[in-house]
Amino acid sequence: MSFQSLGLSDALLKAVSKKGYDTPSPIQEKAIPPILSGRDVLASAQTGTGKTAGFTLPLLHFLSENPKVKFRPIRALILTPTRELAAQVYESVQAYSEFLDIRSAVIFGGVNQKPQVAKLRKGVDVLVATPGRLLDLHNQKLLSIKRVEVFVLDEADRMLDMGFLRDMERIMDIMPDKRQNLMFSATFSKDIRKLANGILNNPIKVEATPENSTVEAISQKVYRVAKNKKTGLIIKLISEGNWTQVLVFTRTKHGANRLTKKMISAGISAAAIHGNKSQGARTKALSGFKNGNVRVLVATDIAARGLDIPLLPYVVNFELPNISEDYVHRIGRTGRAGANGQAISLVSADETSYLKHIENLIGERIEVDIVEGFEPDPNASTEPIKPGQNRQHRGRRHKGNSTSSSRKNSGQNRKRNRNRNRNRRNNNG
Ligand code: AMP
Asked: Tens of pLDDT along 167-202?
C-alpha cells in the first residue's frame, strides 16, 4: 500500500516524502482510513509503530480541508502523559504540517508558561498538551478548548498509570460533546477499556501488534546475576561488546543517578533522564544520546516513555519492572522499523517472580545466561522487594502468589498510590 492510496492531500504526501517514508506502517494503514472518515478509533499501538503519524496525518488532512483561518480556535487537542512525548508529538505535527496553513503549539509543565501563552494568543489549530499544564492554563482562562473537533488521547495506559484519570475527566467535561475521539494505548487493561467506553463513540478498533506481545525483531536475553554484581556486569557487557546507544532502565531515580555516575567513572559516557531532572537537563541528555555523544542513557520508565529514538540497538533492564506491561514498553524501544534489537535483563534472585510474570504475559520463556565472575548469589532470597524499600513501586505491583496479602493492604496501597501519583503529576504535567 502507498501513502497516496490512503487519500491524504498532496501537501501531506509531500511532507511524508520529505521525512523519507516510503510506505505506511501497519498502524498507519489501518488507522488513517477510519480516522479520515470521521470515526472514533481505538488503536492498540506502542511507540515505534509510527502511531504519531497514524493520527497526525488524518487529523491535519481534516483540518486543512475544512479551514477556519480567520479566527483560530483550538480545533484539535492531543493529550500526552509526559513532557518528552508532548515535545516529540509536537515536532511531528510541525513536520507533517510544513506545507499546510496550520498553526500548532505545545504546552507542558516544568517550564515558564509565558512563551506558551504568547503562542496560544496568536491562535493555534492544533494543541499538544500534558494534562496538568492544560488545566492550569484553562483555569487561568488563558486558553479555551470549547471548539475542539478532534481529540487524541495518546498513550492512554500511561495516563492512567500516572494518575491522570481525574484530570482527563475534567478535560473531557470542558470540551464539546460533539467531536471525533482517537485513543491510543500500548496495553489494554480493564481500566483502559472502561476509559475507552467513557470517551469513544462506537469506535473502530485497530491493532498494530498483537496485544501484550513482544515485537518479533527483538532478541531477548536474561543474565542471572548477584544484585551487587549488576553494575560490574553491565559495564563489562557494554565495554566488551562495544555497545553504543544503550538505553538502560532502572526502577528508581536514585538508581539511575548512581548507575550513571558509576558508568562515567568506568569511562563510559552516560546521562540520566528522570522526573527529578529539569526539562533542560532532560532535553540535553536526550540530544546527546541521539547525536552519539552520550553512549548510555539511564532512564526510569516514566521518563523513557515516548522517547523518539529510532533504531535503538540495545535496551538493558538493570532491574526488571515490577509491572509486567512495562517490560513490553521498555523493550519496544528496540528493534524498530524492521531493525534487529537486543533486550537484555539483569535479573537477581529477588526479581524471580517478576520474571515469571513477564514470561507469562509475553507467552514465552526468555533465554537465560550467566557470565563467569558475575554468578547469582546462591544464598539470596527470592522474595520480591517490599514496597517500603522502593519509593517508585506502583499500586499494581505483582506480588508472586500472595494475592490475599495484597488485598489486605489495598487500602494502604491506594493511599500510597495517591501520593505517588500526585508526585508524578507534579513531575510531568
Ligand atoms: P512513533 O511510533 O510515532 O513514535 O514513530 C516511530 C518512528 O518511526 C519515528 O521516528 C517516525 O519518524 C518513524 N516513522 C513513522 N512512520 C513511518 C513510516 N511510514 N516509514 C518509516 N518510518 C516511519
From this structure: 999 999 999 999 999 999 987 788 888 999 999 999
Q: Tell me the mean pLDDT in the region 198-223.
A: 77
Residues 176 and 231 in one domain: no
**From the CB of 185, is ligand 1 less than 6 Å away?**
no
Residue 139 cell numbers, joined:
483555569
Who has greater pLDDT, 141 or 23?
141
Instruction: Give residues with Cβ within 8 angstroms of 382, minimum separation 6.
Output: 349, 350, 352, 353
Contact 378, 348 (CB under 8 A): no
Q: Relative to the CA of 21, which ligand 1 atom is closest?
A: 20
Classified as helix, coil or strand, 335 is coil
Sheet strands (E) in 30-133: 41-44, 76-79, 104-107, 126-129
CB of 56 within 6 A of ligand 1: the answer is: no
Report pTM.
Answer: 0.62
The answer on 202 and 232 residing in a single domain is no
pLDDT (mean) for 60-81: 92
1 lines ligand 1 (CB under 6 A): no
Residue with the smallest CA separation from ligand 1 atom 6 is 48
Name which of 29, 26, 19 is nearest 46 in CA terms: 26
What range does the domain containing 38 cover? Answer: 4-207
pLDDT score for 109? 94
Is 196 in the same domain as 59? yes
